TrEMBL record:
Listed PANTHER family: EXPORTED PROTEIN-RELATED, FLAVODOXIN-LIKE DOMAIN-CONTAINING PROTEIN
Molecular-function annotations in GO: FMN binding; oxidoreductase activity, acting on NAD(P)H
Domain Flavodoxin-like: 11-138
InterPro entries according to UniProt: Flavodoxin/NO_synth, Flavoprotein-like_sf
Protein name: Flavodoxin
Pfam families xrefs: Flavodoxin_4 (PF12682)
Organism: Candidatus Lachnoclostridium pullistercoris
């Protein structure tokens, strides 16, 4: 990532267990020209779903923030940050919570997004506002894991609703 000119582009940060959230992040990067960085926990999550679900519930309930692998993107040169993860037990995934807690995002605009399979409802805006009380956290966007129609159009509408239509207009195509 080059710091030159990055204030004009957004930063896209995402954690994805199955790849669904990264699919959304990749599309956000394509329509905004933003710099995309993936978050990885130091210790990978279990591959078996029952074990993953048990660990995710425990971590969300206790507010656990796992250690992350280095290289997940420096937010300092950016004014707009897209922050995404799967909806785990009605909350942001702990790796994203770790990244948000580790970085000073005061004065930044944060746009939360998440993937879900239609399960427990969540309030990503509230969750991120608690971790980043001095940031301008805008409305969240949830997209089902199997799609959600025309994702590019859904993302453009979301940007417009959050007062950031110019981000997608600059890279329309």
């Amino acid at each position: 990532m080059s710091a030159s000119g990055s204030a004009d582009r957004p930063l896209i940060i995402s954690y994805s267990y199955s790849g669904s959230t990264h699919r959304i992040a990749k599309e956000i990067s394509a329509i905004t020209g933003g710099d995309w960085h993936e978050i990885y926990p130091w210790q990978p999550y279990p591959m078996a779903f029952p074990e993953l679900l048990e660990q995710a519930r425990r971590e969300v309930e206790t507010g656990y923030h796992p250690r992350l692998l280095p290289g997940s993107g420096d937010p300092k040169p950016y004014s707009v940050i897209f922050a995404g993860s799967p909806n785990w037990c009605g909350s942001i995934a702990p790796p994203l919570a770790s990244w948000l807690a580790e970085n000073d995002l005061s004065g930044k605009i944060i746009l939360p997004f998440y993937s879900h399979c239609g399960g427990v409802s969540c309030d990503f805006r509230r969750d991120i506002s608690r971790l980043c009380p001095r940031a301008d956290v805008r409305g969240a966007l949830g997209i089902t894991e199997n799609g959600s129609g025309d994702m590019r159009e859904i993302l453009r509408l979301w940007l417009t609703q959050n007062g950031l239509r110019t981000l997608s207009a600059a890279y329309a195509g």
